[in-house]
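User: Structure tokens for both sequences below?

Assistant:
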Amino acid sequence: MTDSLEDASTQAVDVRMSRLLPDYSVPDGHFDELRDPDGTLRPVWHTFAASETDLSAASCAQANQRIARQIDENGVTYNVYATDRGSARPWALDVLPLVIPSLEWAALERGLRQRARLLNSVAADLYGAQALLRDGLIPPALVFRHSGFLRACHGVRPPNGTFLHVAAFDLARGPDGTWRVVGTRAQAPSGLGYSLENRAIVSRLFPDAYRSLGIQPLSPFFHLLRETLSAAAPSGGGAPDIVLLTPGPYSETYFEHAYLARQLGFPLVEGSDLAVRHDRVFLKTVSGLRPVHAIFRRLDDDYCDPVELRADSALGIPGLVQAWRAGNVLVANAFGLSVLESPALLGFLPAICQRLLGEPLETPALATWWCGEAAALADARQRLDEGVIKPAFARADMAPVFASALDASARDAWADRIGAGPDAYVVEEFLPLSHAPVWQNDRVESRAVMLRVFLIADGRGDYRMMPGGLCRIAGADPGIVSGQRGGSSKDTWVVAGTPSFAAQSPATSIAGRARTREPLGERTTSSRAAENLFWLGRYAERSENSARLLRSVLSRLTDGGALSASMRPAFLRVCRRQELLAPLEADDTASPEREASDGALARELLDGLFDRDEHRSLRFNVEQTVRVAGAVRDRLSSDNWRLLNRLTQLFAKWPASGGHLDEALEVIDDALVSLVAVGGLEMAHMTRDQGWRFLSLGRHLERLQFIATTLEDSAAAPSADASLLEWLLELSDSVLTYRVRYVQRPEWQSVVDLIVLDVRNPRSAHFQLTKLAKHVRLLPNADTGDLPGEVDRLIAACRTDEWRGEGRGLGRERTIEPLLIGVERLAARLSDALTLRYFSHVDDRARVTVAV
């Protein structure tokens, strides 16, 4: 009876899968990740399909749409980020995971941990005794002619003897099902963040299968990474300060850098954020120079230090290598490890492993011949003639670059690729890649796959492997698996057995270390981060102001008679001040009342609305908002970023030839909703640290300036009729407040009271001044001259009864102008003072060092 039930269940699964896989086939000579040679589902896939997961074509199509939407909302990209003219290329993720059995993974982990230990020992020898070179186990030319071997690193002994803190191996499965190493990533391996994001998305698509298979989680790996770096950092017994070093927002993997920084809790910094003083590294913060004890870098060796490495690098930190060499900062990974990435090294590792570790190398690598010697060259020639070596490659960063190992031009090109001299080229075995099911073209197809796995040093001389990895899928070219050449990715599921990863504490625990950190709730804020947050506040507020102004103007220009003759001059002045309309020529004496018709003005506003070259256009300001937000992405929540990403999409879809007015108003309305939501998230969710304070300063300054200039331009109107005053209330988002409070038609004095003088109105000038006074005094090492006193004087002026008399007509309108002019000048002066004091450091006076 039990056998009958099992047979029926197996048949049901087979029927379900056959409906999903009518066109699925794997080319001859390639391993099938889905089916056994006899055509039956492999056990892990049978369990996957036997769960309550819906695997119909319709369900997969819907899941694919959800993935695309999630990636779009999260802004997951892999390319040049936030370029001026190009949109970010979305990360590509397949619906179906790559599932690996527990026993297979355990064997793979054992071999790769051994390989990581071996590579760390090789690095220690190359930059130490160099016995491997003397004994002929590695040809000297392979090392000394490799651009990644850094003589400046010779003799350095990093903490715990660990050179390789994070290792990555690119794996491919041959026709016999054996995993082979086809590449090593030892300098600054990428892919960790994308692996975690893939898991976060795909695990939600198939929760039943995820539970049925008992998939191992990834989070313990990142916990151990954070603890290991903290334990090894030379902080003198105190809690270490660790930063994640990125090339910046224009790096192709910047999303991952920000994602990792947020996951690990490390400040995301660029080279310009760091400085070296007396062989020690410091972070330039708004509070002064703060010691840095460890750097988790995503910047290649050459660019890290213009003094000792690449002299023309504008991304590095002068003196960093010397600070590392002196043992005052941990750099992970250590400098000089790209020499370990040379494909030529693979063929020498079995003998090296026997020498250094006293055991055979467990996990095989792609068969490789280094042709820098006559014997190897003759062997390669023979193997080419016999067809053992084929002139094609399946490495993640290679293309078919030559047809024969003896072709001179191809040899030189290949030498450039591996960073070696013209005599040190490599020939590799051709390996038919395994195929896995992929959702493509509205159906399941088979595509070639490769897998990148990650290991971290545990501080005890061993490594731990993340139970998963970054699986890459071939794109249009079935023989090339490369992120640079299209294709997609998969989440990698490791079935639970004996846990392949244990989140053990590092050798030196940081528990109990003295923690002399900033006050509770504070967070280190670099000067660059503070500047970007300041401008994020300004651009976001500027975008909101522009959107409100455009909506109010366009709706009136298209509503017959709504733009009265009395408010037209003020309307034109405000639009020109905000550069929504072209300024009048110097010799243009035409009366504003006789200018273009309402229809022509509406068309001019629409033409400039989405022009990204106009610095006051709504599109430009929104794009600048997203740009500066991207530079501090590690400080923004995922919800905040989704809103900002939606803003970008609103304008990206606008036709180049222009659209209709109703469409424009719909975009403006949607933009306003998102902008208001962004501001709400800032208030509700951001920690009140110095970064938030600079963001708030930017918002309040921009809002203050807008209030002052708008009221100035309106105060000069011939008369303050109700339509003009209603418009001013609308621009300041104060219509409802006015109606509830005054229950009457708008009057000039009442409008001024609400928009300028009322400290309870969050859209008033008085309110902005009080916030600025508070924030400026709470800034670290605050020294902005007489500006705090000027703010106080303007606040006192707002509180006097001078502006609340029985004003009549034009006299009252004109008397408010000196206050508005003073407010506008203050906003400009305060912005300049903050820039000089905290961002550019031009007026840097004896800046203190923050002790920890």
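Moving on to the next sequence.
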Amino acid sequence: MATPLEKARRNPDSVKARILGVARKLFGQYGFQGTTTRMIAKEAGIDISTLHYHWGDKGDLFEAVIHDLNDETRVKLIEIEKKIKGKELTERIDIALDEMFDFLFENPEISNHTIFRYFTQTTTDLDLNIGLSSVPEYISDIAYSMGLSETRREASPEAQMKVIFMMNALHNFVSGEIFFRSIMKIDREEYRRLAKETLKFYNIAPYK
């Protein structure tokens, strides 16, 4: 039997998919603790009983959101790996940063969820580390794609740290956009240009 997440993906115009999209955004903005099912229902234009009918409780919906974000990220990483295969390291990093930067800026909830999981502590029974088991896999895959590791399974701590540095910088630039732009008093286009330029300088320069 198909899961609610699979059903939402099969029919992107459905009520189930609309709820998922709203939940992705609100959980990304306010975190698990700061988001209520009533907030999600109101934003989706439905009543609370309809939300529970389609997704169960808040924890079930949150888990679906995390799996959806992880799967979407995995697909993007595979796409990037195909584009950079066989190229020189600095070119691989340049292309990968371009692709991931644009992808994350179009899907800021991915970075927001990641940042929340860095710092959020909870006293509920819900495991907010849903999906964290895939993080080591992502790091190793990226290290291998970048040519920083000879295999996917045995990336050295040094290689992993370089990947973590790169991804952490990306997530912080995306998640902190509004705050950083207010400090620098620049528009979104200029912010994105400068952020991408800075990311490339600090990630590519050491390999030249």
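User: Anything stand out in the second?

Assistant: Residues 58-84 form the longest helix (27 residues).
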